[in-house]
Amino acid sequence: xxxxxxxxxxxxxxxxxxxxxxxxxxxxxxxxxxxxxxxxxxxxxxxxxxxxxxxxxxxxxxxxxxxxxxxxxxxxxxxxxxxxxxxxxxxxxxxxxxxxxxxxxxxxxxxxxxxxxxxxxxxxxxxxxxxxxxxxxxxxxxxxxxxxxxxxxxxxxxxxxxxxxxxxxxxxxxxxxxxxxxxxxxxxxxxxxxxxxxxxxxxxxxxxxxxxxxxxxxxxxxxxxxxxxxxxxxxxxxxxxxxxxxxxxxxxxxxxxxxxxxxxxxxxxxxxxxxxxxxxxxxxxxxxxxxxxxxxxxxxxxxxxxxxxxxxxxxxxxxxxxxxxxxxxxxxxxxxxxxxxxxxxxxxxxxxxxxxxxxxxxxxxxxxxxxxxxxxxxxxxxxxxxxxxxxxxxxxxxxxxxxxxxxxxxxxxxxxxxxxxxxxxxxxxxxxxxxxxxxxxxxxxxxxxxxxxxxxxxxxxxxxxxxxxxxxxxxxxxxxxxxxxxxxxxxxxxxxxxxxxxxxxxxxxxxxxxxxxxxxxxxxxxxxxxxxxxxxxxxxxxxxxxxxxxxxxxxxxxxxxxxxxxxxxxxxxxxxxxxxxxxxxxxxxxxxxxxxxxxxxxxxxxxxxxxxxxxxxxxxxxxxxxxxxxxxxxxxxxxxxxxxxxxxxxxxxxxxxxxxxxxxxxxxxxxxxxxxxxxxxxxxxxxxxxxxxxxxxxxxxxxxxxxxxxxxxxxx
Length: 716
Prior knowledge:
about 725 residues; seven-stranded mixed sheet; 24 strands
């Protein structure tokens, strides 16, 4: 048998792996700089002119054998993990043996002058059709110089400037100095993310460390966003630092059901461990907040002198991974904010950082994070399960920051609202009684003019915020429209079925009577014939009767709850209404027991739908969380307060999942769920409904069963 060797022309390889493989000229230059880095050079100089590019280093160089056995062969890289000692020690950047084809992306002709210490200097030349190898005399001890000619791109001053900026973002090490020269001007490339200064580059730093063996994510937040007086408004929140530790196995429990539903707990742990340790440092800042907002929210730094441009860079050791150099929104900040567009002040919505508000770096290791694999063209990563978990872990850390910042903003917004309600305004007095204008003292006149100026600012700002407000509530409206539509469909079906309710309820009796008339009933009722479930006609008919009655009950509830009267304000007997809700649920779910603790004769002016929406969702949530239980006890307590009605809802179930242990209020965020097929909207609806009444959720506990305390306000 003849063994065949396939030969591919160098020009074809150069076209495929060089010209077509590298998406732009900057990435091709970077690939050759990586080669210099891997050669343990302490410096590399890139000299660019109209006719040629020269890349020169003082690394270990190559000899004739290395050229023949490694340089000239695809995938024959002899690169390991770490090389060198002391100042030259580094994790190697390359591994695929395609570096030389980056030359083909830059030019159609090249010469490589290279020398190893103690060896003859070697010159390799190519036009990608023919290759030559010869020796030459070289004075320097070691190193490599690549001369590229017949350039494929027109290198202008602007293009060179873009290259410097690109290298600044993509190189994140101090072991090798990079210099770029153009028109006799040589400039050193500095790391884009240098020494970070709060109030200069950003207002908050989010440091993440994932410890794979312990499945822990450590989130350290350092912030200088707000003025000192804000601390008085948020006494329980540290405005400067926050440290949060997350159990990732618990946090990403839902992902287990999506990625590896059949996996055991041990297999799931192994998958999370295989992600490997990594770290991140992210920098948050608002883009050009208005003077009005700066004053309103007590921002300490409105304008940052050296604000980092948005974009998160993913570094594998010293170099970024192509297409993750900060231009691509690979963490999908934009998508997350569109799915949850609520402003930080929103009383119920979950605020998400915007794409233009976050910059920073994520650092992985070639060996530690070997599950994060390059795709074939090296322009990105394979989006496998490891990659999906890697992204989810980072987002878990970002969620911590989002909740932390939103809690502060909500405190400020609440204080602003209280101040507006509390502070008497001169302008209000004048509006009520215009002749008082001439009677104002000089101090009142100054205050009046100040209030007018503030009104102008607020009016101007409000015009800007109209679009933002509309956009913010679009999602809420869409979600509620969807739910309303589902309800209307169900109501329509219930109306249609109502005409058949008598036959639905009576059909079983008619069937039994017919079987008796035809003298079949005694046969089907015989003990022998009822031995097997699928042949037990009387039992099947009885089961059918129970189901039919549930359908009828459902129809009645749907139709009664959709009546217009449910949405009109009236004086409600709270006990009667909750007793009705209790009866419906206990009738449908025999294993739940709802206890009411309500003052006698407690009346409250509201609409019935508010109570139904709140308690139907709370009870449903308890049922879904405890569906494996044989019995579930639920307690509902209610009493009148000065401005509203205080309520406490609790169950004696298993409580909230562990990931909510330190932050149970998270369950109020839209799409927050611990169930595989859960939508995460039930508790969001509860929160939204309560907030719309002017009330608030005061406390949630989930360690020993579930408990929620809240006030239903007086707004209808």
